[in-house]
Amino acid sequence: MKKIIITLTGLLVLSCQSKKEEPAAKPETINETTVSLTEAQLKNADLALGQLEKKSLSAVLKVNGQIDVPPQNLVSISMPLGGYLKSTQLLPGMHINKGQIIATMEDQQYVQLQQDYLTTKSRLYFAEKEYDRQKELNQNQASSDKVYQMADADYKTLRITLNALGEKLKLINVNPNTLSEKNISKSVNVYAPITGFVSKVNVNIGKYVNPADVLFELINPTDIHLNLKVFEKDITKLAIGQKLVAYTNNQPENKHQCEIILISKDLSIDEHSAEVHCHFEDYDKTLLPGMYMNAEIEIKSHNVLTLPEAAVVTFEGKEYIFTALDKTNFKITEVTTGTRENGFIEIVNGENFNGKSIVTQGAYTLLMKLKNKSDE
């Protein structure tokens, strides 16, 4: 029995040892930093050497935003004196012209206001005549100063009252100069102050509206602009007058040329972004306020250190270049890259390689040889 136990224990120990000896899988890495080529390999590799060059590259900043209209092109229509909506034909999306009748309102206070105006106008006529008479009598010492002063005060008071009533009539679109006892009306018209289209209708026929209530909202889309959100780190790259292209998600192939007209100086608390307002160079009727758009802004980077894109190789998510130690030996070094344009790539940490000979052609061949060397 003891022999059997010893045998089983030995088997367990051997099994554990065999498990420990199994090598764990390791991520693929470059263990060596230099690679050497023979004369024959060097000839077949067709390598080319060069140095960092200063170039002006363009980067594209991609942002998004939505179409907006300036305050002067967005109009809320209300009735300053209130009243009942008698009629309207407006529907959201309907096109309207400036001066067009968009609604008719009615209320008894409109009648009262017109009555007060005409009554005051009539009294003013009499007060003016009385003022002139008392003035003449006072100059001839035929009446007292008190009577003349009372006539003057009545005349001026009625003039003030008439002007005030006339301004109230203008608020409800009634012309006081053409008003007479023959054309007093309980109804007044509401006119469109701009040419555009209806965005909102907030009332229905027969509803009473207060002076603060908004009946309709009108938009003039001819001066729409694009309101972009740009993060704090990119604001300094933009300038007024800078060009960009914008497009919608539904029609990315339809590019709209824009120009930056205003850059906000205030950053939002939540996103640390600023609003950048852009003007469309050509008005497109298919673009509507509130529509979301994407934009691409070309940004110039002046005099950055660059290499041909073929000089930079990628391995395990990192980017490298090869520098020549001598004619047959080359060293791999990690680099940080930036903007790419026209076959050149910005080397952000390029100051570390100034004056060094860099492999600008055949770098991938060296990477494969170095990787195979590390795998041996």
From TrEMBL:
Q: Which residues cross the membrane?
A: none
List, alphabetically, the InterPro entries matched.
Answer: CzcB_C, MFP_Cation_Efflux, RND_pump_MFP
Every copy of the CzcB-like C-terminal circularly permuted SH3-like domain together lies at 306-366
Q: Which is one Gene Ontology cellular component term of this protein?
A: membrane
Q: Does the keyword Cell cycle apply?
A: no
**Which keywords, in A-to-Z order, does the entry hold?**
Transport
Q: Which Pfam families match?
A: CzcB_C
| Presence of keyword Transport | yes
Q: Which SUPFAM superfamilies match?
A: HlyD-like secretion proteins
Instruction: Give the signal peptide range.
Output: none
List the GO biological process terms.
Answer: copper ion export; plasma membrane copper ion transport
Domain of life of the native organism? Bacteria
Q: Which GO terms describe its molecular function?
A: transmembrane transporter activity
Instruction: Provide the family line.
Output: Belongs to the membrane fusion protein (MFP) (TC 8.A.1) family.
Identify the NCBIfam families for this entry: RND_mfp
Record-given protein name = Efflux RND transporter periplasmic adaptor subunit
